[in-house]
């Protein structure tokens, strides 16, 4: 998936040496742990701990701690920023002291299915250790702003050049989509407990003449539970580069999010991506979609399948010129590059402030990049 971390850390690699620690994988027949370093074209080094399959949790944490120490020792004179996406990384990094600690909180991870029991306590520790906290949306900001003195909201942004390709015409329909009749209503993203699969089934049943094209990996839910209808097409995961080709062949988009604890604070990146692609989109009433996109008339909001069918029919039939002009005006100053630049300014300001007042570094610190 090419989402917030990939966008931001790609820009970070323009001025920083970036190591991104993945969660470990386990390999049968391996006798000694190893760290596989994969250099991406953007310059980010993806660090993948590969461990013997028989390792327990304590052994896995110890191995990752050693890998982190080795990387830091290889750059002895560098200033170090630990950038977290998950508090769980504290288990192998809390013994180190970076020059700066950042928590980019993009989700309420404790509300997700299968969240580790210690996640809440580790997040509390991370709030104590962090110098800066960024949140992935305004609702999440409201939930976190009282837990730290230096919290800043940075909602989902957009790679306009990439997704606007869907509006330019001349793109060949992908082989697994070109046989699907129109109208096509599309979704792309992770398929997990955040999707209202009953709504998807009801919409398909209400409008059997429409085809629902579903793109993305199925995670943490049993694929057997997904609704199967002749007009629902589960195409699986596609590469980021191929997404505009799929979106170019859709008539509208929909975001059938369930309203539960896992979606209470989400700010879906796909919202501006749909809009940049020129696709009208209808969403369930997720707070960070309702405000600002719904209130500005950029996205239609529907509470159930009946209302969603009615609104999808309206946006597909209605004129788009005025709507597209409003969309383009709203997205004009939005970019991941701009988001990173604003974050980087805050990081540099904090570092200058610490240097000016002679503040001692925190002890017992943090983890990710």
Can you give a write-up of this model?
This protein is of the alpha/beta class and 369 residues long. 35% of the residues lie in helices and 17% in strands. It is built from 13 helices and 14 strands. It has helices at 4-12, 57-73, 90-93, 119-129, 138-144, 160-163, 197-206, 243-248, 270-276, 287-294, 305-317, 321-331, 336-357, and strands at residues 19-21, 25-27, 34-39, 45-52, 81-84, 100-105, 132-135, 151-153, 184-188, 211-215, 232-236, 252-255, 281-283, 300-301. It has a six-stranded parallel beta sheet, with helices on both faces. Strands 1, 2, 3 and 4 form a four-stranded mixed beta sheet that branches. It has a four-stranded parallel beta sheet with strand order 5-6-7-8, sandwiched between helices. Strand 9, helix 7 (197-206) and strand 10 form a beta-alpha-beta unit. The protein starts with a helix and ends in a 12-residue tail after the last helix.
